[in-house]
Amino acid sequence: MSVLAAGLAELVRPEFAWANCSGSTTEWERSVVSLLERGSSGRRADPVEPADFQPLETHPEAIAELVDPETLPARMRERLFEFVGLPPLLQRLVSTASTPGDRVSVVLTNVDGLPPLIVQSTFESSRVHEVLHREGITLLVTFRGNPSSRMQEPFDQVYRVEQPFDGPWVDSKVRSERGPARTELLLPKSLRESWTTLGLNPWLLPD
């Protein structure tokens, strides 16, 4: 659920970057869109195109055009090379949410709207997650339906949100399927109970 992703993102840092991967958000509930826009302050790439996730071909010579290699330690040059090898959309979102010395969080909603090959090459890639972890970037994604075990594996935390078929999203049930070490969330709980257990900002949920 997008609301839970926004709450977890704000726990990392009040401001985050957001992009929706399933086209327009015009039919979303206004309260949900407002919550995401509030945190992302308009730093949003919408709509997302599959090409935004196509890895760029990078070469050491191209890095040299951005920065003088002699001014960076070898390990820093290697990290820069690996970062610019990330999908372009992730690079753009990280740059919009970045402030020197601060942690960064990126929210991608409805990634199930992307072609399966893009989902595999990006979210199932251990290399992508390793680069993000090393750079202090928290990636939060939402997926409608049942993501594959291969997609869930690289993520530190996985939550399943079950929204009532004919009820409001605030009546959703949440259960954890991977980490953190909060056993209270192993069994389904209401969204409000889960929100409190996770220590998320109570002001983000409507009364």
Total number of distinct structural domains = 1
Question: What structural class do helix, strand and pairing data support?
Answer: alpha/beta
Strand content: 5-15%
How many β-strands, per DSSP?
6
Major sheet:
3 strands, parallel
Which keywords apply here?
3-stranded antiparallel sheet; 207 residues; single chain; alpha/beta; 9 helices
Characterization of the model:
This protein has one domain. The strands form 2 sheets. A 3-stranded parallel beta sheet has the order 1-2-3, sandwiched between helices. The protein is built from 9 helices and 6 strands, in the order H-E-H-H-H-H-E-H-H-E-H-E-E-E-H. The protein has 207 residues and is of the alpha/beta class.
